[in-house]
Amino acid sequence: MQSTEDKIEKTIDLAAPLPRVWRALTDHREFGEWFQVKLSGPFRPGAVVTGQMTFPGYEDYPWRARVERMEPETLFSFKWHDFDEKSDKDVSEQPTTLVEFRLEAIDGGSTRLHITESGFAALPDPRRLEVLRENTKGWEIQADNIKSHVTT
Question: For the chain, what is the domain count?
Answer without folding.
Answer: 1
